[in-house]
Specification:
Length: about 675
Amino acid sequence: MGGPRKPTLPLPGKENILITSALPYVNNVPHLGNIIGSVLSADVFARFCRARGLPTVYVCGSDQYGTATETKALSEGVDPATLCAKYHAIHKDIYDWFRLDFDVFGRTPTPEHTEIVQDIFTRLWNNGFIEQRETTQAYCPTHDSFLADRYVEGECSLCHDKGARGDQCDACGNLLDPLEPDLDASGNQETKATGWLINPRCKLDGTTPERRQTKHLYLRLDSLQNEIKEWLAEAEKGWSANCVSITHSWLDQGLKPRGITRDLKWGVPIPTGLDGLSDKDYAKKVFYVWFDACIGYPSITKTYTDADSQEGTNWEKWWKNPDDVSLYQFMGKDNVPFHTIIFPASQLGTRENWTKVKHVSTTEYLNYEGGKFSKSKGIGVFGNNARDTGIDPDVWRYYLLSRRPETSDSEFKWEEFVDCNNNDLLKNLGNLCQRIVKFCQAKMDGVVPEYDLSKFPALQQHKEEVDKHLQEYIANLKTLKLRSGLAAIMSISALGNKLLQDNKLSNQLIAEEPDRCRAVIGIALNHIHLLANILSPYMPAKAQSILQQLGVKGASEEDQEAFAHIPDQWEADALKPGHAIGTPELLFSTIPAGKIEEWRDAYGGEELRKQKELEVEKAAAKKAAREKEKEKKKLKKAAAAAQASQAAEGSAKTTLPMHPALAAQVADGTAKESEPVDPVSKA
């Protein structure tokens, strides 16, 4: 992340860009799928927008409230605030290492967050979009509190695992209720999930919970459905097909009131003093994390724009300014409904003029070497593991972005990771920059030469081809097609190598065709200058290295970092004749092939093999079961046919008398199957 910068505010009449990435839940260490799914992708787009000169704010932070945090803190023997401080620091450290340049990376437990969440709820309550419901819930008499589902443990009614939780059984994967459902008027069980807990007990003290009635608050999504549909008709036009599909799957089923309160201590408390809302009923309840988590975006923004004033309203210039601000949100597909249904519904229900999401960028899943990331089993690369490899963060950024799961699941493979570094980066991009800068230093005294492109039509054509790819790059980034944008960069790099090959850059060229050589070096230096700028959103440190090698300096002595600028069109004249370049440096180094197996084994190789073997065994068992069932049905069908045949034969024997001699043959087994059995003629 960059250092502190003066808060950016939107400018009237400008294209102002507000960017969020899904707030990472704080009680774990992010793996590579988490990183590419939201925070890294959003960072690329934020850097692109800044390099285009657009007023841009990139907001993120840790999502700290909720049941999972309380239970994790309980398991580690600390209070939730201490746990959150620990993991917030871990997340920030990892994101710093990956060079993520947030304008603000905050957290949800702040006075600003409480204020904005309670204000939104109050407006929803006053506008009639909140309802109260009485439900039966587990209650622990020992510590005098209703229990959230995860605070109840017991035996799964489906697989009978003894360590199931009240929300889910990890052994069989089924959703559960903490208590056996009540019977309805017809005597049937009112099941909300697929099973329940047998012999439930309180996670905190082992007490058997009681059934008690309690009240909870629900957001009336059903009352807001038509408004959501009307808003979506325009908003969803730029969204991915999967994002639209997920959103409409909720709408097609019909939106229903959704619970927004939980029986916890760690969360935003329900506001008091509201007409018709009992303070006593909700004194021990807080807002459900998925009601307040998305409100973390504006509350974290406020800590950035109004850091010195709790009463400040600069944050509203971003979040209540839809005419001047475009909101882009990045997330994995599992977070879509909360950003496209629940949060917009909350905004609409306040009747305020909120900035609502304009562009949603969702990703599918990043898998690992044919399996899935698993922290508990040590499978896959997590943020801290990437640093342990000793490979530069920009190489990790490049590989992850080149495999970004934009339209379907993608795969992390160590062999591809090494190949990307050794071929895409070292042989294509790295060698191009090294060759041009070294030649200029050695043969042209480290100064951009005087040159005239008009004498060389092929060089003019090169300029046009590069500009064509630049336009593709800009179009791809604007539409959040980050993989295609990266491919355009590598195409421009390949054109640079082709330029040198076609013109046979060498000592012979400078000796025999000095004008052509100067023109080739002049346009080539500007070529890698363009490459550095368009590469900066993806590989910021390597882009800075290229700019430094080209002698491009920062705005001041204090700020040595050169400011990236992505032009509308490539004029190939950013570096003027006489400009002194810097010293050539290697951008990349070879990763030995032997590292592939070393890293594969280090990051879950054996466990991954076991996981794959288990999956193969399960698949084989399912296939065998299907075949067995198929054979069983076949035998059953054959038996039924045989039984029907025997019944028909028996019927014939009882209704048609047989000739006595033939009957005797049948009885002693001497009659042949092919011999006809004629009935005795009636007298």
